[in-house]
Automatic annotation (TrEMBL):
EC number(s) recorded for this UniProt protein: 1.11.1.24
SUPFAM superfamilies from the UniProt entry: Thioredoxin-like
Stored InterPro entries: Redoxin (IPR013740), Thioredoxin-like_sf (IPR036249), Thioredoxin_domain (IPR013766), TPX (IPR002065), Tpx_CS (IPR018219), Tpx_Peroxidase_subfamily (IPR050455)
Name of the molecule in the record: Thiol peroxidase
Record-stated family: Belongs to the peroxiredoxin family. Tpx subfamily.
Active-site residues (renumbered): C60 (cysteine sulfenic acid (-soh) intermediate)
Disulfide bonds: C60-C94
Gene: tpx
Note: The active site is a conserved redox-active cysteine residue, the peroxidatic cysteine (C(P)), which makes the nucleophilic attack on the peroxide substrate. The peroxide oxidizes the C(P)-SH to cysteine sulfenic acid (C(P)-SOH), which then reacts with another cysteine residue, the resolving cysteine (C(R)), to form a disulfide bridge. The disulfide is subsequently reduced by an appropriate electron donor to complete the catalytic cycle. In this atypical 2-Cys peroxiredoxin, C(R) is present in the same subunit to form an intramolecular disulfide.
UniProt keyword list: Antioxidant, Disulfide bond, Oxidoreductase, Peroxidase, Redox-active center
Subunit details: Homodimer.
C-alpha cells in the first residue's frame, strides 16, 4: 500500500499504482458531456493521466492549467485530467478558465481509483483520488508514474513530459 501526505499527515492509498513497463488497466471515465472517456478510444495516442483529488482546490486547478499549456505542444498525445469531481464541476472549471487542450474526466461512476491503486484511505479526503501522474505509450504501457508525496504540492511536470521523449 502506497503512502502520500496531507499537510504532513500520512495518508494511505488503497492499492498499487501500475509499475513502469506494465500495461495500464483499461478504464472508463465520464467526460464533461457525460459521455465515456475510455482507454480503448485513446489507443494509438500517448496518454498523460493527470490525476487529482478535486478541481476545487488550488493545486489541482493549477495542475489542470499547466497541463493545458503543455498539451498544446505534445504531438499524438491526449492529456486526461481525472478526479472524482462530478463532470459538471470539471466542465464549469474548464469553461471559466478557457481550458481547451485537455480532456477532463470523472471517476464518479467507475472503478478507476481502485484499478489504478489511487483511492485515498484513512483521511478527511477518503474516497477521493490521490495526486498522481501516469504516462502511457500508444499501446497502454506505463512509461512514467508518480504519486505525489504531498497532496498539497504539484506533480513533476518535467518528468511527465520527458517520459514522452523516450
Amino acid at each position: 500500500m502506497a503512502i502520500t501526505a496531507l499537510k504532513g499527515t500520512p495518508v494511505q492509498i488503497i492499492g498499487e499504482l501500475p509499475a513502469v513497463g506494465a500495461t495500464a488497466p483499461d478504464f472508463t471515465l465520464t467526460g464533461a458531456d457525460l459521455g465515456d472517456v475510455t482507454s480503448t478510444e485513446l489507443r494509438g495516442k500517448r496518454v498523460v493521466l493527470n490525476i487529482f483529488p478535486s478541481i476545487d482546490t488550488g493545486v489541482c486547478a493549477s495542475s489542470v492549467r499547466r497541463f493545458n499549456e503543455l498539451a498544446s505542444g505534445l504531438e499524438n498525445t491526449a492529456v486526461v485530467c481525472a478526479s472524482a469531481d462530478l463532470p459538471f464541476a470539471l466542465g464549469r472549471f474548464c469553461g471559466t478558465e478557457g481550458i481547451e487542450n485537455v480532456v477532463t474526466a470523472s471517476s464518479f461512476r467507475s472503478d478507476f481509483g481502485a484499478d489504478f491503486g489511487l483511492t485515498l484511505g484513512d483521511s478527511p479526503m477518503k474516497g477521493l483520488l490521490a495526486r498522481a501522474i501516469v504516462v502511457l505509450d500508444e499501446k497502454g504501457a506505463v512509461l512514467h508514474s508518480e504519486i505525489v508525496p504531498e497532496i498539497a504540492t504539484e506533480p513533476n511536470y518535467d518528468a511527465a513530459v520527458a517520459a514522452l521523449s523516450n
